[in-house]
Write a structure and sequence with these properties.
Elements: H1 2-13, H2 19-35, H3 41-57
Helix pairs in contact: 1-2, 2-3
């Protein structure tokens, strides 16, 4: 997940966020939710919310 977040940071600094990175991040978030350690849940939920907001800005509304 950290690698995808790093790639997204580079995209954001360049002024473009790709739908592919966002969808990949959401998939990783779903995996992390099922196996997350105690205390990481809040961070994972924040990351998921931000990814969904960015996808919504692009006109995509994943379930």
């Amino acid at each position: 997940m950290l690698d995808v977040l790093q790639e997204m940071k580079v995209d954001m600094l360049a002024g473009k966020v790709t739908e592919g990175h966002l969808n990949r991040l959401l998939a990783l978030v779903q995996q992390a939710k099922s196996s997350s350690e105690q205390g990481l849940d809040d961070w994972i939920e924040d990351i998921e919310l931000r990814a969904r907001v960015e996808l919504a800005k692009l006109g995509h509304f994943p379930n």
